[in-house]
Amino acid sequence: MLPTDNELIRARQDLEAGLLPDTCNILSGTNVIDAMGGGSVTWGTARAHMACRIDAMSGREILAAGEIEPFHTYVMTLPNSATITSDNRIEHGGYTYEVKSVTLDRSWSWCKRAIVERV
Questions:
Q1: Which fold has domain 5-118?
Q2: pLDDT top residue among 17 and 94
Q3: Which end of the chain is more exposed for a tag (fewer CB within 10 A), N or C?
Q4: Torsion sign (Cα): 59, 110, 12, 27
């Protein structure tokens, strides 16, 4: 017998409470044109205090301008109800992360996972 919608909702809430111990802010960008015709992106909070969990995946280093720059990849786990795409950024623990990809929305899943890199 398949679980009811209410049972799935309750299971997701229980999982989120136990497995998403942190909070983060989801950011969205707005393109701003300057007087010279150039532009930049201004980031603002689209959703504050979203339950989350961050786990390290891998790290690498590249040589840029004669200096070694580290890049670390993480998996950010968010509630399935989170609205997030690769156009967003995430603030967590004093750091900002660029969203590289997000798992496809699956109605049966309790979470979304975003692959992120620290900016």
A1: Thrombin, subunit H (2.40.10)
A2: 94
A3: N
A4: positive
